[in-house]
């Protein structure tokens, strides 16, 4: 009894499949693509970008030319303003007599390279206080 309704359902499905209506010959709907319009707009945009780039390039060249002319004019003016000054010839008829300096003599210090301890960097960097440092720390 339970098997019969399942068979009826299977038969009904088979009938529905068999009775599928035949497709009618339909003409496709006419549709309009906007690719042509987009291509025209894109071409106009590319043209405007190219013209702007060309105009900017021309302006840059003009500015560089103007800057170069200004620099050349400044150089010309500087050269015109510069007055060459000749150096005087030394007098060879008088002998050169050196004069003694008024600065005091420097006091010589004896270097003590053997006493520098490599771990004490203040000795190396502060040469002025080296002797005092050596006395204070008594490096050997």
From TrEMBL:
<protein>
    <recommendedName>
        <fullName>TPX2 C-terminal domain-containing protein</fullName>
    </recommendedName>
</protein>
<keyword id="KW-0493">Microtubule</keyword>
<dbReference type="InterPro" id="IPR027329">
    <property type="entry name" value="TPX2_C"/>
</dbReference>
<dbReference type="GO" id="GO:0008017">
    <property type="term" value="F:microtubule binding"/>
</dbReference>
<dbReference type="GO" id="GO:0060236">
    <property type="term" value="P:regulation of mitotic spindle organization"/>
</dbReference>
<dbReference type="GO" id="GO:0005880">
    <property type="term" value="C:nuclear microtubule"/>
</dbReference>
<dbReference type="GO" id="GO:0090307">
    <property type="term" value="P:mitotic spindle assembly"/>
</dbReference>
<dbReference type="GO" id="GO:0005819">
    <property type="term" value="C:spindle"/>
</dbReference>
<dbReference type="Pfam" id="PF06886">
    <property type="entry name" value="TPX2"/>
</dbReference>
<feature type="region of interest" description="Disordered">
    <location>
        <begin position="1"/>
        <end position="25"/>
    </location>
</feature>
<dbReference type="GO" id="GO:0030295">
    <property type="term" value="F:protein kinase activator activity"/>
</dbReference>
<dbReference type="InterPro" id="IPR009675">
    <property type="entry name" value="TPX2_fam"/>
</dbReference>
<feature type="domain" description="TPX2 C-terminal">
    <location>
        <begin position="31"/>
        <end position="106"/>
    </location>
</feature>
<keyword id="KW-0206">Cytoskeleton</keyword>
<keyword id="KW-0963">Cytoplasm</keyword>
<feature type="compositionally biased region" description="Basic and acidic residues">
    <location>
        <begin position="1"/>
        <end position="11"/>
    </location>
</feature>
<comment type="similarity">
    <text>Belongs to the TPX2 family.</text>
</comment>
